[in-house]
Design brief:
The complex is a heterodimer of chains A (108) and B (241). Helices cover 77% and strands 0% of the residues of chain A. With 108 residues, chain A is mostly helical. Chain A has a domain of 54 residues. Chain B folds into 2 domains: 177 residues, no CATH class; 58 residues, no CATH class. In chain B, helix 11 runs antiparallel to helix 12. Chain B has 12 helices and no strands. Classes of the chains: A mainly alpha (108), B mainly alpha (241). At the A-B interface, helix 1, helix 2, helix 3, helix 4 and helix 5 of A face helix 3, helix 4, helix 5, helix 6 and helix 7 of B. Chain A: Pfam families: AzlD.
């Protein structure tokens, strides 16, 4: 069980810290022009952070105890290919879930 | 189509709605896990309202349950959230000219979903004004964030009744992949993503979730270098679709 004093301390510190991280550039840089080299790197933030966040979840999903799971890898591949082909986020989500449930049902 | 801030707001609401499918189960799950860890409903709700970052909340909760020192629990959860600073920097060229109170609210509501939706939109709609962009951002947030609070409470009240067969653990990877795929529209974008994935897998064992940050920085550098390399050859590397 959790120590409730520690919990409230964590909530407060995490709240302040998270807001700080979110506000640091938006709030403090504001409308000052960023240098070209910074903008050049920022253009690739989304396509670097989000795949890096997802890749370990796909290869070692917690639900299968961290072992690679064919159904989840298949679902990830389906979402990626459909997303690339259609350029439509929702089509990718639907096909990803379709592949996930289909493969879970097939493999059992 | 000429769009007003009002219409971009509603566009954001419409495009944010599907992400309820992701955020909903995640919030429910947090409520459930929080209850199992011994939090009451008020504590679970406060956690979600104050921190509003699922992965960091799960991390902190897990570490507190394992009797980790409080400072380590806080630092680890903040490390999970370091990507928010990157999101903040990435949105600054788009939202930086908005009034500071709007930027403060945008910062509070800066989550994976609102960031991914907005940056994809802003890169496509290059002629949007700051007001249109701010409106779109808050549109995306409107269906997603309030439900984060509500479903945390629901999860805390119902406890552990979502059967694992629904495989809702995988809702987040599927939706993020589906969001990223259409953004991979040029050679530098592809390079950034592939380098980030490779480094993330190689560095997955690093403590404090640092592998994610190393991978993100490596991906960003790879993308920027690929862009420079292509520019020196006088091509843009846009992928034709």
């Amino acid at each position: 069980m959790i120590d409730h004093h520690a919990l409230w301390l964590v909530i407060a510190a995490l709240g302040l810290g998270s807001f700080g991280l979110r506000f640091v550039f938006l709030g403090l840089i504001g409308d000052r022009q960023l240098p070209e080299w910074a903008l050049r790197h920022l253009r690739y933030t989304a396509v670097a952070v989000l795949p890096a966040l997802v890749a370990p979840l796909v290869v070692w999903p917690a639900a299968s105890g961290g072992e690679p799971d064919p159904a989840r890898i298949g679902a990830a591949v389906a979402a990626l290919l459909v997303g690339l082909a259609t350029r439509n986020v929702f089509a990718g989500i639907i096909c990803g879930f379709g592949a996930l449930y289909g493969l879970l049902w097939l493999i059992g | 189509m000429a769009s007003t801030p009002k219409s971009t707001y509603w566009l954001g609401v419409r495009e944010g709605l599907p992400f309820l499918l992701v955020v909903g189960p995640f919030a429910l799950l947090f409520g459930v896990v929080a209850t199992e860890a011994g939090l009451n409903v008020l504590e679970a709700l406060t956690f979600s309202v104050v921190v509003i970052a699922g992965a960091a909340q799960f991390t902190a909760l897990q570490l507190l349950q394992d009797q980790t020192p409080v400072a380590i629990a806080i630092l680890s959860a903040l490390a999970v959230n370091l990507r928010m600073a990157m999101y903040s920097a990435s949105l600054t060229p788009h939202l930086g000219r908005a009034p500071v109170w709007q930027r403060a609210f945008a910062a509070y509501f800066l989550v994976d979903q609102s960031y991914a939706l907005s940056i994809a939109k802003f890169e496509k709609e290059r002629d949007w004004t700051v007001r249109q962009k701010v409106a779109y951002f808050f549109g995306c947030v409107t269906p997603v964030c309030p439900m984060w609070y509500v479903l945390t409470v629901v999860g805390a009240l119902i406890g552990n009744t979502i059967p694992p067969e629904y495989a809702l653990d995988f809702a987040l990877p599927i939706t993020f992949i589906a969001m990223i795929a259409p953004m991979l529209r040029s050679l530098p974008h592809l390079t950034a993503a592939m380098v980030a994935v490779t480094v993330a897998l190689v560095c997955a064992g690093l403590p404090l979730n640092l592998g994610l940050l190393v991978a993100a920085v490596a991906g960003m550098i790879a993308g920027a270098q690929a862009e420079l390399w292509l520019a020196r050859r006088g091509v843009t590397g846009e992928v034709r679709t």
